[in-house]
Amino acid sequence: MDQPVVIPLTAPRLNQINSGQGIDAVANGACLAGVDAGVIGRVDSQWLETIADGLSEHGWITLDVQERLGRPLMAALASEVALLDRSDAMKSAGIGRGSDLMRDRSVRRDKIAWLQGITAPQAALFEFFEEIRSGLNRRLFLGLKRFESHYATYQPGDFYKKHVDSFHGRASRVVSLVLYLNDGWRAEDGGELRVFNRESDSEICGLVRPEAGRLALFLSEEIPHEVLPANRTRYSLACWFRQDEVPLPL
Ligand SMILES: O=C(O)CCC(=O)C(=O)O
Ligand SMILES: [Fe+2]
């Protein structure tokens, strides 16, 4: 299944999760202690301003959100993806959608699993994404309507060659976000996100080490980027903020 169904979390749904009716089907229960589904205060206007400025001036920005999201939430997300990686839930990622979907191992080798926002850590994260979505709309008038998000795993040797996340004029994916979930990532572990200049795509303008708590945000249509081959298992979570209300018919 390659079409994610992502519904921005509404208050009743969050209340349901907070009142304990939500399911923690995937997450490791022990790691959920201390995860608070309410993220009020995690996103403040100064932080949103920094992101909006980075996106409008350079087209991309990287930040550390380990403290902002809190270690229990980071640990819970990392244990979810590690558990998914041990099951058969992670599927080879493709390029394109629906009938256009192609699985080309010379371009990308990661595996993905779409988030539904149902487990407590995912609900907390979706609330965080929702604050970013509305905060960017208020500042940059992007008209972002929803988001979709997946976990990604790269095994040693896996990579994702240079690409952009959206085609010009499709107005679908507008802002891309990647959150890394790997403790103690060393330089020799490779797997960096390499970011290219939006004006001249042979010019490298950033290298992001996929260390736990590091966040990268960039304009989906404008910023070419690639994932260099990883030398150890690499866990991440990607989110795309979209301008369309529902997926385009294929
Ligand atoms: O994991 C990363 O650093 C980037 C992944 C990516 O470019 C993508 O999934 O489109
Ligand atoms: Fe990408």
List the helices and strands and how they pair.
Elements: H1 11-18, H2 45-58, E1 60-64, H3 66-69, H4 71-86, E2 91-92, E3 111-114, H5 120-140, E4 146-154, E5 160-163, E6 173-180, E7 193-196, E8 204-208, E9 214-219, E10 225-227, E11 234-242
Antiparallel strand pairs: 1-9, 2-3, 3-4, 4-11, 5-10, 6-9, 6-11, 7-8, 7-10
Helix pairs in contact: 2-5, 4-5
The site of fe (ii) ion has 3 residues, from loops.
Largest sheet: spatial strand order: 1-9-6-11-4-3-2
The small molecules bound here are: 2-oxoglutaric acid, fe (ii) ion
- Number of helices, counting only DSSP H or I runs of 4 residues or more: 5
Alpha-carbon Rg, integer: 17 Å
Count every beta strand, where a strand is a DSSP E run of 2 or more residues: 11
Estimate percent helicity. Answer: 25-40%
What's the main sheet like?
A: 7 strands, antiparallel
Cofactor: L-ascorbate
Pfam families: 2OG-FeII_Oxy_3
Protein name: 2OG-Fe(II) oxygenase
Keywords: Dioxygenase, Iron, Metal-binding, Oxidoreductase, Vitamin C
